[in-house]
Backbone:
């Protein structure tokens, strides 16, 4: 009657980041075919005070990396947010995939009850159990950014479909 | 080391549909304050072949209802997709919330291994275990539509934030 915290996190992030890689590959092919400035997509936003595509991809990969690491009880690798191209975004996602796939299901053994503190020491500090951290916080934020990245590209006429977003599982 | 299928589904759908209700309430208030035609938002799309806001909300609530029902092994209530106003969308979400909250955690007891078949009898038929159905299919689709509904409203200048999207948990 239950699903392991590992199964509900790492394979889901892997699936969706794979989908995002496919979506970004189609976006890059679209840029090449139409001879566009890649920044016309990388810096596209749905509204002036929303993150552009490039930042949505960075944050989506950050949630995958950070949530998986905290649930496994390890320190997430630091990423410097220096990406400026589609190729660099692909490399970032690939590095996050390598990291999360290096985690072993056994590291998630006590993850459901482990206390996880976000924004520790700030007025926004929040304490979770591992299972709440994943279900009520990590997944909603992760999917928010993968979907918004997709939405930005769809809005700009890149021919991607929900199948691309969903990825392979 | 695991989370129950109930905990990973019903409370998550409840949280996010509550968030969506708040987002839609702000959209309706925006319509009133700016004296807009409500259909300017309800029929807004991010691209011509994407669903408009109204349909995104219908589909998001359908995923919550359908996924929870299948995991609980019950027939989901039929909804007729006749909504045309913000008030009707709110009523639809409320009815889905009432339905999913009527499900008992015990009904999800064998959900992780129960076989779930989507689009049965069609060329797109797919067979899942309950846990894969939730993690690899149900949640990605559900979050896709809640996020896209939010994105349509953000794109149209409704003052909502990620906190509204995330809801209360």
Residues:
């Amino acid at each position: 009657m239950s699903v392991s915290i590992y199964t509900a996190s790492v394979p889901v992030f892997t699936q969706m980041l794979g989908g995002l890689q496919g979506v970004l590959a189609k976006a890059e092919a679209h840029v090449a075919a139409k001879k566009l400035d890649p920044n016309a997509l990388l810096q596209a936003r749905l509204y002036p005070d929303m993150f552009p595509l490039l930042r949505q991809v960075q944050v989506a990969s950050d949630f995958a990396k950070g949530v998986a690491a905290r649930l496994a009880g390890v320190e997430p690798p630091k990423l410097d947010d220096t990406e400026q191209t589609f190729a660099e975004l692909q490399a970032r996602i690939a590095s996050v995939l390598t990291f999360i796939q290096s985690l072993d299901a056994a590291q998630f053994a006590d993850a459901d009850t482990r206390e996880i503190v976000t924004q520790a020491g700030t007025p926004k500090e929040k304490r979770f159990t591992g299972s709440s951290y994943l279900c009520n916080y990590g997944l909603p934020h992760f999917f928010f950014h993968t979907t918004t990245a997709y939405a930005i590209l769809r809005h700009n006429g890149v021919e991607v479909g929900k199948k691309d977003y969903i990825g392979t599982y």
Remarks:
- The beta strands of chain B are 2-4, 115-118, 126-129.
- The domain at 5-166 of chain B is CATH 1.20.120.450 (Four Helix Bundle (Hemerythrin (Met), subunit A)).
